[in-house]
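Got a spare moment? Tell me how you read both lines of this record:
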Amino acid sequence: MSSFFRSLSLRAAPAAALVLVACASRPHVRATPPSPTEPAAPPADALIVPEQPSVVLAPRARIAAGLLNPRGMQPLASGELLLSEAGNGLPDAPPSGRLTVLSDRNADGDYLDEGEQRVLLDRQPSKNILEIVRRDEVFGMAGMAEGDGRVLVALAFFGGPTTVLQVIGDAVTEWGETHTNLNDVTYDPGRKQWYAVASTTDEVVRLQAGGGVERVVKIPPLENGQDPVPGYLRHDPVSGEILVTLFSGSPEGEEGGDGTELVPRAGGIIAVDPDRKSFRWLVRGLTVPTDLEIAPDGSIYVLEFCRSFLHPVRSHADLQGGPSHGGFERFSGRLLHIERPSGRTTVIAEGLDAPTNLVLVGNALLVAEGMGTPGREIPSPSGSVKLEGFVERIPLQ
Protein backbone atom coordinates (compact mmCIF):
# COMPACT_ATOMS: atom_id res chain seq x y z
CA MET A 1 0.00 0.00 0.00
CA SER A 2 1.44 3.37 -0.97
CA SER A 3 1.80 6.15 1.55
CA PHE A 4 -1.39 8.09 2.17
CA PHE A 5 0.10 10.70 4.47
CA ARG A 6 -0.37 14.23 3.23
CA SER A 7 0.31 17.45 5.17
CA LEU A 8 -1.26 17.04 8.64
CA SER A 9 -4.19 14.90 7.53
CA LEU A 10 -4.56 11.36 6.21
CA ARG A 11 -7.23 10.62 3.68
CA ALA A 12 -9.93 8.17 4.72
CA ALA A 13 -9.41 4.50 3.97
CA PRO A 14 -11.79 1.55 4.43
CA ALA A 15 -12.24 -0.54 7.52
CA ALA A 16 -9.91 1.06 10.04
CA ALA A 17 -9.60 -1.00 13.23
CA LEU A 18 -7.42 -0.66 16.31
CA VAL A 19 -6.96 -0.76 20.08
CA LEU A 20 -8.16 -4.21 21.05
CA VAL A 21 -9.70 -6.77 18.75
CA ALA A 22 -11.99 -8.86 20.90
CA CYS A 23 -11.75 -11.92 18.69
CA ALA A 24 -9.20 -13.15 16.20
CA SER A 25 -9.17 -12.28 12.53
CA ARG A 26 -10.30 -15.68 11.39
CA PRO A 27 -12.96 -18.13 12.60
CA HIS A 28 -12.09 -21.53 13.98
CA VAL A 29 -13.91 -24.50 15.41
CA ARG A 30 -14.63 -25.00 19.07
CA ALA A 31 -11.87 -25.97 21.43
CA THR A 32 -9.87 -29.12 20.89
CA PRO A 33 -7.47 -30.65 23.43
CA PRO A 34 -4.44 -28.37 23.67
CA SER A 35 -1.18 -29.42 22.07
CA PRO A 36 2.01 -29.63 24.18
CA THR A 37 3.03 -26.18 22.91
CA GLU A 38 -0.11 -24.48 24.22
CA PRO A 39 -0.17 -22.79 27.66
CA ALA A 40 -2.96 -25.09 28.82
CA ALA A 41 -2.33 -24.44 32.52
CA PRO A 42 -0.67 -21.60 34.39
CA PRO A 43 2.91 -22.40 35.40
CA ALA A 44 3.72 -22.67 39.05
CA ASP A 45 5.40 -19.27 39.18
CA ALA A 46 2.59 -17.31 37.49
CA LEU A 47 0.79 -14.77 39.68
CA ILE A 48 -2.89 -15.68 40.00
CA VAL A 49 -5.43 -12.88 40.48
CA PRO A 50 -7.95 -14.07 43.10
CA GLU A 51 -11.63 -14.17 42.22
CA GLN A 52 -12.34 -11.66 44.99
CA PRO A 53 -9.29 -9.44 45.49
CA SER A 54 -9.25 -6.84 48.23
CA VAL A 55 -10.86 -3.51 47.38
CA VAL A 56 -9.31 -0.19 48.39
CA LEU A 57 -10.84 2.41 46.11
CA ALA A 58 -8.92 5.55 45.23
CA PRO A 59 -10.68 8.85 44.45
CA ARG A 60 -11.39 9.64 40.79
CA ALA A 61 -11.87 12.88 38.89
CA ARG A 62 -13.04 13.38 35.30
CA ILE A 63 -10.46 15.63 33.63
CA ALA A 64 -11.52 15.50 29.95
CA ALA A 65 -14.94 14.88 28.39
CA GLY A 66 -16.85 15.01 25.11
CA LEU A 67 -14.20 12.85 23.43
CA LEU A 68 -14.67 10.52 20.48
CA ASN A 69 -13.41 7.17 21.77
CA PRO A 70 -10.23 8.29 23.56
CA ARG A 71 -7.36 5.84 23.34
CA GLY A 72 -3.59 6.34 23.66
CA MET A 73 -2.18 9.02 25.97
CA GLN A 74 1.34 10.35 26.38
CA PRO A 75 2.56 13.09 28.73
CA LEU A 76 4.84 15.57 26.93
CA ALA A 77 7.89 17.46 28.16
CA SER A 78 5.83 20.65 27.87
CA GLY A 79 3.49 19.40 30.59
CA GLU A 80 0.74 18.82 28.03
CA LEU A 81 -0.96 15.51 27.25
CA LEU A 82 -1.08 14.00 23.77
CA LEU A 83 -4.29 12.01 23.22
CA SER A 84 -5.50 9.87 20.31
CA GLU A 85 -9.21 9.53 19.55
CA ALA A 86 -10.52 6.68 17.42
CA GLY A 87 -13.51 8.74 16.20
CA ASN A 88 -17.22 8.01 16.15
CA GLY A 89 -17.16 4.96 13.89
CA LEU A 90 -20.42 5.94 12.22
CA PRO A 91 -21.00 4.59 8.71
CA ASP A 92 -21.08 7.21 5.94
CA ALA A 93 -19.81 9.87 8.35
CA PRO A 94 -16.74 12.00 7.61
CA PRO A 95 -13.51 10.60 9.09
CA SER A 96 -13.45 11.69 12.74
CA GLY A 97 -10.30 10.22 14.30
CA ARG A 98 -7.77 12.71 15.60
CA LEU A 99 -4.73 13.53 17.70
CA THR A 100 -5.38 16.15 20.36
CA VAL A 101 -3.04 18.08 22.65
CA LEU A 102 -4.56 18.79 26.09
CA SER A 103 -3.26 21.77 28.08
CA ASP A 104 -4.32 22.73 31.61
CA ARG A 105 -4.04 26.47 30.93
CA ASN A 106 -5.70 27.65 34.15
CA ALA A 107 -3.95 25.04 36.35
CA ASP A 108 -7.21 23.70 37.81
CA GLY A 109 -6.23 20.07 37.28
CA ASP A 110 -8.39 19.29 34.26
CA TYR A 111 -8.77 19.88 30.52
CA LEU A 112 -12.45 20.83 30.61
CA ASP A 113 -12.16 24.55 29.98
CA GLU A 114 -12.37 26.42 26.69
CA GLY A 115 -9.14 26.43 24.74
CA GLU A 116 -7.59 23.48 26.60
CA GLN A 117 -8.00 20.99 23.74
CA ARG A 118 -6.00 21.66 20.57
CA VAL A 119 -6.38 19.37 17.54
CA LEU A 120 -3.01 18.42 16.09
CA LEU A 121 -4.23 16.00 13.42
CA ASP A 122 -7.80 15.29 12.32
CA ARG A 123 -9.96 13.61 9.69
CA GLN A 124 -8.55 10.14 10.39
CA PRO A 125 -10.40 6.90 9.49
CA SER A 126 -12.83 5.53 12.09
CA LYS A 127 -14.67 2.22 11.90
CA ASN A 128 -17.17 0.34 14.05
CA ILE A 129 -16.77 -3.42 13.54
CA LEU A 130 -20.00 -4.47 15.27
CA GLU A 131 -21.03 -6.45 12.17
CA ILE A 132 -18.05 -8.74 12.81
CA VAL A 133 -17.82 -9.01 16.59
CA ARG A 134 -21.45 -8.14 17.50
CA ARG A 135 -20.30 -5.53 20.01
CA ASP A 136 -20.24 -1.74 19.77
CA GLU A 137 -16.49 -1.43 19.17
CA VAL A 138 -14.99 1.60 17.45
CA PHE A 139 -11.45 1.56 16.10
CA GLY A 140 -9.04 3.94 14.40
CA MET A 141 -6.26 5.99 16.02
CA ALA A 142 -4.98 4.02 18.99
CA GLY A 143 -1.99 3.20 21.20
CA MET A 144 1.08 5.40 21.48
CA ALA A 145 4.40 5.54 23.31
CA GLU A 146 7.41 7.82 23.63
CA GLY A 147 11.02 6.91 22.91
CA ASP A 148 14.07 7.85 20.89
CA GLY A 149 13.03 11.52 20.86
CA ARG A 150 9.58 10.99 19.38
CA VAL A 151 6.08 9.68 20.05
CA LEU A 152 4.84 6.87 17.82
CA VAL A 153 1.09 6.44 17.27
CA ALA A 154 -0.59 3.54 15.48
CA LEU A 155 -3.33 3.96 12.87
CA ALA A 156 -4.45 0.52 11.71
CA PHE A 157 -7.02 -1.36 9.69
CA PHE A 158 -8.83 -4.50 10.82
CA GLY A 159 -6.53 -7.28 9.69
CA GLY A 160 -4.02 -4.68 8.40
CA PRO A 161 -2.37 -2.61 7.11
CA THR A 162 -1.09 -0.19 9.76
CA THR A 163 0.50 3.23 9.35
CA VAL A 164 2.71 4.30 12.26
CA LEU A 165 2.88 8.07 12.72
CA GLN A 166 5.59 9.94 14.57
CA VAL A 167 5.03 13.14 16.52
CA ILE A 168 7.96 15.46 17.17
CA GLY A 169 6.81 18.77 18.61
CA ASP A 170 3.75 19.71 16.56
CA ALA A 171 5.02 17.93 13.45
CA VAL A 172 3.23 14.71 12.52
CA THR A 173 4.80 12.57 9.80
CA GLU A 174 4.70 8.96 8.66
CA TRP A 175 7.32 6.79 10.41
CA GLY A 176 6.50 3.42 8.88
CA GLU A 177 3.88 1.14 7.43
CA THR A 178 3.22 -2.57 7.71
CA HIS A 179 0.72 -5.07 6.37
CA THR A 180 -0.52 -6.27 9.77
CA ASN A 181 -2.81 -4.75 12.40
CA LEU A 182 -0.84 -3.11 15.25
CA ASN A 183 -2.88 -2.30 18.36
CA ASP A 184 -0.21 -0.71 20.53
CA VAL A 185 3.48 0.19 20.56
CA THR A 186 6.24 0.47 23.18
CA TYR A 187 9.89 1.50 23.20
CA ASP A 188 12.67 -0.59 24.77
CA PRO A 189 15.42 1.86 25.81
CA GLY A 190 17.91 -0.91 26.54
CA ARG A 191 17.66 -2.58 23.14
CA LYS A 192 16.79 0.74 21.46
CA GLN A 193 13.96 -1.00 19.63
CA TRP A 194 10.25 -0.43 19.07
CA TYR A 195 7.82 -3.30 19.65
CA ALA A 196 4.11 -3.74 18.94
CA VAL A 197 1.27 -6.23 19.28
CA ALA A 198 -0.79 -7.49 16.35
CA SER A 199 -4.10 -8.75 17.72
CA THR A 200 -5.48 -10.25 14.53
CA THR A 201 -2.43 -12.48 14.09
CA ASP A 202 -1.70 -13.03 17.81
CA GLU A 203 1.87 -11.78 17.49
CA VAL A 204 4.38 -9.58 19.25
CA VAL A 205 6.59 -7.91 16.64
CA ARG A 206 9.65 -5.68 16.35
CA LEU A 207 9.06 -2.57 14.24
CA GLN A 208 11.40 -1.62 11.44
CA ALA A 209 11.77 2.07 10.61
CA GLY A 210 10.28 2.85 7.22
CA GLY A 211 7.95 -0.12 7.25
CA GLY A 212 7.71 -3.80 7.99
CA VAL A 213 7.90 -5.88 11.15
CA GLU A 214 9.85 -8.86 12.43
CA ARG A 215 7.98 -11.48 14.42
CA VAL A 216 9.20 -11.91 17.99
CA VAL A 217 6.65 -14.46 19.20
CA LYS A 218 3.48 -16.07 17.91
CA ILE A 219 1.17 -16.68 20.87
CA PRO A 220 -0.70 -20.01 20.73
CA PRO A 221 -4.40 -20.50 21.55
CA LEU A 222 -5.54 -20.53 25.18
CA GLU A 223 -6.82 -23.58 27.02
CA ASN A 224 -10.42 -23.22 25.83
CA GLY A 225 -9.30 -22.98 22.21
CA GLN A 226 -9.79 -19.22 22.00
CA ASP A 227 -7.28 -16.87 20.44
CA PRO A 228 -5.11 -15.04 23.00
CA VAL A 229 -5.67 -11.59 21.39
CA PRO A 230 -2.67 -9.55 22.56
CA GLY A 231 -4.02 -6.10 23.32
CA TYR A 232 -1.39 -3.79 24.87
CA LEU A 233 2.26 -3.91 25.85
CA ARG A 234 4.89 -2.14 27.99
CA HIS A 235 8.63 -2.46 28.36
CA ASP A 236 9.33 -3.79 31.85
CA PRO A 237 12.28 -1.96 33.46
CA VAL A 238 12.40 -4.62 36.19
CA SER A 239 13.11 -7.66 34.00
CA GLY A 240 13.95 -6.07 30.65
CA GLU A 241 11.10 -8.08 29.08
CA ILE A 242 8.05 -6.82 27.21
CA LEU A 243 4.82 -7.29 29.19
CA VAL A 244 1.76 -8.02 27.04
CA THR A 245 -1.91 -8.26 28.04
CA LEU A 246 -3.93 -11.09 26.51
CA PHE A 247 -7.54 -9.99 26.08
CA SER A 248 -8.71 -13.55 25.26
CA GLY A 249 -11.10 -14.15 22.39
CA SER A 250 -14.21 -16.27 22.06
CA PRO A 251 -13.98 -20.08 21.92
CA GLU A 252 -16.46 -19.79 19.03
CA GLY A 253 -14.15 -17.61 16.92
CA GLU A 254 -15.24 -14.18 15.75
CA GLU A 255 -17.80 -15.55 13.31
CA GLY A 256 -19.39 -17.96 15.78
CA GLY A 257 -21.87 -17.50 18.60
CA ASP A 258 -23.44 -14.15 19.39
CA GLY A 259 -20.39 -12.30 20.70
CA THR A 260 -20.96 -12.96 24.40
CA GLU A 261 -19.00 -16.22 24.77
CA LEU A 262 -15.73 -14.82 26.07
CA VAL A 263 -14.48 -16.78 29.07
CA PRO A 264 -14.20 -14.92 32.41
CA ARG A 265 -10.72 -14.88 34.01
CA ALA A 266 -9.17 -16.43 30.87
CA GLY A 267 -6.95 -13.42 30.12
CA GLY A 268 -3.68 -12.42 31.66
CA ILE A 269 -0.23 -10.92 31.16
CA ILE A 270 2.75 -12.60 29.55
CA ALA A 271 6.40 -11.54 29.69
CA VAL A 272 8.16 -11.71 26.31
CA ASP A 273 11.93 -12.13 25.93
CA PRO A 274 12.73 -10.48 22.56
CA ASP A 275 16.23 -11.98 22.43
CA ARG A 276 15.17 -15.60 22.92
CA LYS A 277 11.87 -15.01 21.12
CA SER A 278 10.01 -16.73 23.92
CA PHE A 279 7.44 -15.85 26.56
CA ARG A 280 6.30 -16.91 30.01
CA TRP A 281 3.05 -16.37 31.88
CA LEU A 282 3.36 -13.62 34.46
CA VAL A 283 -0.28 -13.03 35.55
CA ARG A 284 -3.34 -15.26 35.14
CA GLY A 285 -6.99 -14.83 36.11
CA LEU A 286 -7.84 -11.51 34.43
CA THR A 287 -11.09 -10.86 32.58
CA VAL A 288 -10.57 -9.10 29.22
CA PRO A 289 -7.54 -7.03 30.30
CA THR A 290 -6.67 -4.02 28.18
CA ASP A 291 -3.83 -1.62 29.00
CA LEU A 292 -1.21 -1.87 31.74
CA GLU A 293 1.36 0.33 33.45
CA ILE A 294 4.42 -0.40 35.57
CA ALA A 295 5.09 1.65 38.69
CA PRO A 296 8.60 2.73 39.78
CA ASP A 297 8.54 0.00 42.46
CA GLY A 298 7.86 -2.64 39.79
CA SER A 299 4.21 -3.27 40.67
CA ILE A 300 1.72 -3.56 37.83
CA TYR A 301 -1.48 -1.64 37.19
CA VAL A 302 -3.86 -3.27 34.71
CA LEU A 303 -7.32 -2.47 33.37
CA GLU A 304 -10.14 -4.98 32.99
CA PHE A 305 -12.44 -3.86 30.20
CA CYS A 306 -15.74 -5.16 31.59
CA ARG A 307 -17.26 -7.83 33.82
CA SER A 308 -19.52 -9.57 31.28
CA PHE A 309 -20.86 -9.35 27.73
CA LEU A 310 -24.50 -8.31 27.33
CA HIS A 311 -26.96 -7.25 24.60
CA PRO A 312 -25.04 -8.27 21.46
CA VAL A 313 -25.78 -6.20 18.34
CA ARG A 314 -25.55 -6.93 14.63
CA SER A 315 -26.33 -3.54 13.10
CA HIS A 316 -26.32 0.14 13.94
CA ALA A 317 -30.12 -0.05 14.02
CA ASP A 318 -29.83 -2.39 17.02
CA LEU A 319 -28.20 0.46 18.95
CA GLN A 320 -31.17 2.79 18.49
CA GLY A 321 -33.85 0.80 20.27
CA GLY A 322 -33.38 2.26 23.74
CA PRO A 323 -30.64 1.88 26.35
CA SER A 324 -28.40 -1.07 25.50
CA HIS A 325 -25.11 -2.42 26.77
CA GLY A 326 -24.27 -3.05 23.11
CA GLY A 327 -22.28 -6.23 23.66
CA PHE A 328 -20.38 -5.57 26.88
CA GLU A 329 -21.56 -4.51 30.30
CA ARG A 330 -21.23 -0.76 30.70
CA PHE A 331 -19.63 0.72 33.84
CA SER A 332 -18.26 -2.65 34.98
CA GLY A 333 -14.55 -2.18 34.25
CA ARG A 334 -11.87 -2.24 36.96
CA LEU A 335 -8.34 -1.06 37.65
CA LEU A 336 -6.16 -3.53 39.55
CA HIS A 337 -2.86 -3.11 41.36
CA ILE A 338 -0.69 -6.25 41.38
CA GLU A 339 2.38 -6.31 43.61
CA ARG A 340 5.53 -8.16 42.66
CA PRO A 341 6.76 -10.66 43.64
CA SER A 342 3.96 -11.48 46.10
CA GLY A 343 1.09 -11.21 43.61
CA ARG A 344 -1.06 -9.38 46.16
CA THR A 345 -3.89 -7.81 44.17
CA THR A 346 -6.04 -4.80 45.06
CA VAL A 347 -8.92 -3.24 43.16
CA ILE A 348 -8.33 0.53 43.22
CA ALA A 349 -11.13 1.55 40.83
CA GLU A 350 -14.36 -0.09 39.76
CA GLY A 351 -17.41 0.91 37.77
CA LEU A 352 -15.24 2.15 34.89
CA ASP A 353 -17.00 2.46 31.53
CA ALA A 354 -15.19 0.26 29.01
CA PRO A 355 -11.67 1.45 29.88
CA THR A 356 -9.15 0.90 27.11
CA ASN A 357 -5.97 2.90 27.80
CA LEU A 358 -3.87 3.72 30.83
CA VAL A 359 -0.87 5.97 31.48
CA LEU A 360 1.10 6.90 34.59
CA VAL A 361 1.64 10.66 34.93
CA GLY A 362 3.57 11.64 38.03
CA ASN A 363 1.76 10.15 41.01
CA ALA A 364 -1.52 9.51 39.20
CA LEU A 365 -2.99 7.21 36.58
CA LEU A 366 -5.05 8.49 33.67
CA VAL A 367 -7.73 6.17 32.27
CA ALA A 368 -9.40 6.57 28.85
CA GLU A 369 -13.02 5.37 28.92
CA GLY A 370 -16.19 5.30 26.83
CA MET A 371 -15.72 2.80 24.00
CA GLY A 372 -18.60 2.80 21.54
CA THR A 373 -20.93 4.97 19.48
CA PRO A 374 -20.96 8.48 20.97
CA GLY A 375 -24.39 9.81 21.94
CA ARG A 376 -26.29 6.54 22.04
CA GLU A 377 -28.26 5.60 25.17
CA ILE A 378 -26.51 3.19 27.55
CA PRO A 379 -27.39 1.87 31.03
CA SER A 380 -25.48 3.36 33.96
CA PRO A 381 -25.74 3.03 37.77
CA SER A 382 -27.76 6.27 37.77
CA GLY A 383 -30.04 5.31 34.88
CA SER A 384 -29.89 5.84 31.14
CA VAL A 385 -27.12 8.18 29.95
CA LYS A 386 -25.61 9.12 26.61
CA LEU A 387 -22.37 7.36 25.76
CA GLU A 388 -19.43 9.75 25.99
CA GLY A 389 -15.68 9.41 25.76
CA PHE A 390 -13.77 10.80 28.73
CA VAL A 391 -10.55 10.59 30.76
CA GLU A 392 -10.36 10.14 34.53
CA ARG A 393 -7.44 10.80 36.86
CA ILE A 394 -6.83 8.39 39.74
CA PRO A 395 -4.25 9.61 42.28
CA LEU A 396 -2.00 7.01 43.87
CA GLN A 397 -1.00 6.87 47.50
Notes: The domain at 14-25+46-395 is CATH 2.120.10.30 (Neuraminidase). The two ends are 48 Å apart (CA to CA). Residues 1-40 have pLDDT under 50 and may be disordered. The helical segments are 130-133.
